[in-house]
Amino acid sequence: MIRTVQRRQKDGSLNDLPAPSVSELYNKCMFGVDIADQKRMQYSTCRKAKKWHKYLFWFCFDIAVVNSLVCIQESPNHKLYTKRGKERKSSQMEYRRALAQ
């Protein structure tokens, strides 16, 4: 299914261009991907490497850590509480320290 989207030209005028409906769905759902990338890059272990498989390993390692953090934060069995009894989520730094220990 083709839809039309408006794009601004260099001269400032608007033109209607055809675009597949999949692009609209992608733009609606990409928010979660952006958050995952932000969390992955916050404490990244990725290193530049001449061998692509080494970089791929560290990339997958970071993704696995972020995914496990999200699972822990959503789990009802791993809730953290403040001194006043309010529920709180563990930070990525706290989680990575506990994971390293």
From TrEMBL:
The chain crosses the membrane at residues 55-75. InterPro entries: PGBD (IPR029526). PANTHER family: PIGGYBAC TRANSPOSABLE ELEMENT-DERIVED PROTEIN 4 (PTHR46599), PIGGYBAC TRANSPOSABLE ELEMENT-DERIVED PROTEIN 4-LIKE (PTHR46599:SF2). It comes from the Eukaryota. Coiled coil: none annotated. Keywords: Membrane, Transmembrane, Transmembrane helix. This is PiggyBac transposable element-derived protein domain-containing protein. Pfam families: DDE_Tnp_1_7 (PF13843). Residues 15-68 form the PiggyBac transposable element-derived protein domain.
